[in-house]
Amino acid sequence: MAQNGIVELPATNTDVALASPWNVIVENDPINLMSYVTLVFQRVFGYPRTQAEKLMLEVHTKGRAIVWSGGREQAEMYVHQLHGYQLLARMEKVE
Amino acid sequence: MRLLQIEPADEKHLRIRGLDRMLCGCLDELPRLLEQGDRPPARQRLYPDPFRSDASANEEWHRLMDSDLRHLFVTAGEIVARDLARLEPDPAQPHRKQLLLPVAHLNAWISALNQARLILGEQFAVTEAEMRREELHPEREQDVALFKIHVLGYLLQLLVEHARPR
C-alpha cells in the first residue's frame, strides 16, 4: 500500500531488461595478424598482454571469442571501436 | 642483420629503413587500393554488421556509425599517402629506400596497411589455408594478391611491435 507522498510503481521488468548483459564477440578472419589482434585487445579493453593473447588465441583456434560482457551502451562503444580497428566484432544479448 | 628495420630517428620520428623494390611497389599502390574499401566486396568487411540476425538494428547501426568509420579509414589513408611522398634512397643500403615517419602517424600507418590487406583478402576471397601456402605463382592474380598481403604484413608486423604498450 502506498504511503502519503510515496508513489508506488507497478512491478515491471524494465530494470531487468536494461541490466541484461551483452557479449562483445570477435570472430576470426584469415588476414589479421595475431600480433595486431592482441594489440587491439590491449588498447580497446586495457587488457594485459597475457590476457589479450589468450583471447586472440581463442579467436584464432575456436573461430570466435567473447572478449567482453556488460551493459549495452558500453558494448556498442566497444564494437564500434573494434570495427575502427577492422576486427570482425559483433554483440549478442546474453540469454 | 634485418634489412627492413624501424628505428627511432628522434623523439618525434621513426625511420623505416631498407624498403626494397617489392615493398615500395606495394606501398605505391596503397592509396589506389584503399579507395576500393568503399566498394563491394571490401565494404562489407570494413563495415561489418554488429548483430547476427537483426536487419533493422544493423541498418540503424550503419546509418549512425559508418560515416565515422569512413572518416577514420580515409584519414589514415591520406596521412600515409602524404608520408609516402617523402620516400628517399637509403644511404646505408643500395637499391633500398627509407622513410621518415612522424610517431604521431604510426596508428594511421597501421590502419592503412591493415585496410589494404583486408581489401586484397576480400577481393581475392583469401582463406586461412591460402594464407599458409608457401608456393606462389606470379602468373596467378590471387597469388600476386597473397604476395602483397604478406609483404604489407611484414611491415605491419614491425609497426605493431613499435606500437605495443611498453
Q: What's the structural blueprint in terms of helices and strands?
A:
The complex is a heterodimer of chains A (95) and B (166).
Chain A: H1 14-19, E1 22-27, H2 34-45, H3 49-62, E2 64-70, H4 72-84, E3 88-93
Antiparallel strand pairs in A: 1-2, 1-3
Helix pairs in contact in A: 2-3
Chain B: E1 5-10, E2 13-19, H1 21-34, H2 42-46, H3 55-84, E3 88-89, E4 97-102, H4 106-123, H5 128-131, H6 141-163
Antiparallel strand pairs in B: 1-2, 2-4, 3-4
Helix pairs in contact in B: 1-3, 1-6, 3-4, 4-6
Distance between the termini of chain A: 34 Å
Question: Count of helices of chain B?
Answer: 6
How many DSSP E strands of chain A?
3
Helix content of chain B: 55-70%
What is Rg of chain B?
17 Å
State Rg of chain A.
18 Å
Distance between the termini of chain B: 24 Å
Task: Give the CA-based shape of chain A.
Answer: globular
Classify the secondary structure makeup of chain B into a structural class: alpha+beta
CATH superfamily of chain A: Ribosomal protein L7/L12, C-terminal domain/Adaptor protein ClpS
